[in-house]
Write a structure and sequence with these properties.
This protein has 322 residues and is an all-alpha fold. It has three domains: 127 residues, no CATH class; 107 residues, Receptor-associated Protein, CATH 1.20.81; 69 residues. 74% of the residues lie in helices and 0% in strands. It has 13 helices and no strands. Helix 4 packs antiparallel against helix 5. The longest helix has 50 residues.
């Protein structure tokens, strides 16, 4: 059987197996939820049950059968929000299809290696299936970091506009069209929601839902307090901007200190592989027992799995939050 035919057969079989499994699981659990748009520019308010705030909506998937199947599960809205937070213009159906295709393709490639045990094939397929999820999560983290870097300048621009006598709407419009992405895009959504009839409290609350950062929560709280009690909002914005910059400077110092530990972890992870390659070069045949012995291949796969797990554990320990 040719590799192309084998790949097609495994993909179709895996696709059918997953669809049937999801269908029966959903029927058994009887989960029925309404799925919001993964690329909707504003979130829903959970307590009030409001729909999407802007007029444009996108479905879960362009394939009606796949969309109807995904709509049965409660985790799909969380996937949609994850994709929307990352700034990618993907639908949930496309995202899940990429995960399925990646896992099936990797399973076919690894199954062609006769030496690998079945557990290694399954592990490689699982890692490939989670590849799109890790990519989207990384894009989400980088987008939030970029937002936090540009947020102090946006607060300063808004504060200068209000100090000059402009209203909040004029200052928000200035930030929405003059700041860099992704700050300008988020403020533009707030401004569009307000123009479509939402109050400032509702529009800013949706901003907090889309960008769950402490600095954004402080900004929204300051605007709300000023609208209720009055005061000099531009002074408060200046203090928030200064605090965000100090927090970013502290975060940079922590990353610089933990960089040594992360480099040490990477070296320790690569060292066993380097030693094995050196042994195989200087003493050919010394490690052949791991290949020839029936248990040897399981030991190799287990060692690689533990090395990867230890690497991520060390990075998690050094990931200090402030």
């Amino acid at each position: 059987m040719s590799p192309t035919v084998l790949l097609l057969f495994v993909f179709v079989a895996t696709f059918a197996f997953v669809i049937v499994g999801l269908y029966y699981a959903a029927t058994w659990l009887k989960v029925s939820v309404q799925i919001p748009s993964a690329a909707a520019v504003a979130g829903e308010k959970g307590d009030e049950g409001q729909g999407p705030l802007l007029l444009r909506e996108e479905g879960v998937s362009s394939i009606s059968f796949w969309a109807g199947l995904l709509e049965r599960f409660s985790f799909v809205p969380n996937l949609g929000k994850l994709i929307a937070d990352s700034g990618l213009n993907w639908s949930v159906g496309r995202f899940t299809s990429m995960m399925l295709l990646g896992g099936a393709s990797m399973a076919v490639v690894l199954s062609r290696i006769a030496w690998l045990p079945w557990i290694a094939v399954l592990g490689g397929a699982a890692v490939a299936m989670l590849g799109p999820f890790f990519y989207v999560s990384s894009k989400r983290t980088k987008r939030f970091e970029a937002f936090e870097q540009g947020f102090p300048d946006a607060l300063d621009s808004l504060g200068r506009a209000m100090r000059a006598g402009h209203a909040l709407a004029a200052g928000m419009e200035m930030v929405a069209y003059e700041s860099a992405q992704p700050v300008s895009g988020e403020f533009r959504k707030v401004l569009e929601e307000w123009r479509l009839g939402q109050s400032w409290d509702q529009a800013l609350e949706h901003l907090v839902e889309r960008v769950p950062l402490v600095s954004v929560s402080l900004f929204v709280a300051a605007v709300r307090m000023q609208s209720r009690t009055g005061g000099k909002l531009h002074e408060i914005l200046g203090r928030i901007s200064e605090g965000v910059r100090e927090s970013m400077a502290l975060d940079g110092e922590i990353k610089a200190i933990s960089a040594h530990g992360k480099l040490t972890g990477a070296i320790l992870t690569a060292m066993p592989l380097g030693i094995a390659m050196m042994l195989n070069y200087t003493a050919p045949g010394y490690l052949d027992i791991l290949v020839d012995h029936p248990i040897g291949k399981y030991l190799i796969v287990g060692a690689i799995a533990f090395l990867v797990a230890a690497h991520f554990v060390m990075r998690k320990i050094l990931d200090i939050k402030i």
